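Holo prediction. Input below; ligand is fe (ii) ion.
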Amino acid sequence: MSVTWRADLEREGFVVLPGFVDDDACDSLMRRAAEIVDEFDARSMRSIFTTDERERVYDAYFLASGDKVRCFFESDAVDESGSLVVDKGRSINKIGHAMHDLDPTFNDFSRTSDLEELAAALGYADPLLLQSMFIFKHPEIGGEVGVHQDATFLYTEPNSTVGLWFALQDARIDNACLWVVPGGHHHGLARRNVRSADGGTTFVELAGGVPDSPQVPLEVDKGTLVVLDGLLPHRSDANHSARSRQAYTLHLIERAAEYPADNWLRRAPDMPLRGFGSRDGTYWEASS
Ligand code: FE2
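Structure of the complex:
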């Protein structure tokens, strides 16, 4: 694989690789995500939204998803009684966070030889696939994601986190493409999100951060891969357009880096993180 982009990535903190994935692979992933939402029983979530401790219980549902396939609602999709105020198909913000290990379609998308070569070109000696997210960004309801660094949530020592952001549909400013702060990764990590004693998470402020820096939109076509340094500040707006902006993200870390026990994302001992190789086995086969 050509690594002409490596210097760009080191300078800017991101690189855009058009046509990395073909249309069929994008379509197949979107179809599978729609099936997962179809199979999801939204009514089972009512008990969470009707409890007095709605926020705490929903946080627990989220924090236990590091080794599961779970659906998460848009904040405007559910009313006080736990009822959906939009169609279920439009109510889901994202699916996370272990489809790459638990679903054959997502595994196939996430473990191609192209991606294995890309990870090697990124400098990984022994990459692990830490987290996957399918983001729907539905028309009119898809919510914003504020400026953040992925390493805030997926932290290793030393920092080894890289985000792979796949545009499954064309992403433009009006349907909420990514915005980035070029070079912003040079300023270090602004804060860490850590597990707290009350069962939730909290932020620990660190020395890094890039205040008031200009942000640049990344308008990209379906099939584009955007590689994001884990320290690069980025965001996306709410989607006020009539078109969705579906994307899939995969996060890599280095096996030899320390993965702190107070990171939010945890895996069960019998489901350790895996790399790209088929030697690692597949969890759905092991559990069937
Ligand atoms: Fe992010």
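The radius of gyration is 18 Å. That is the main takeaway for now.
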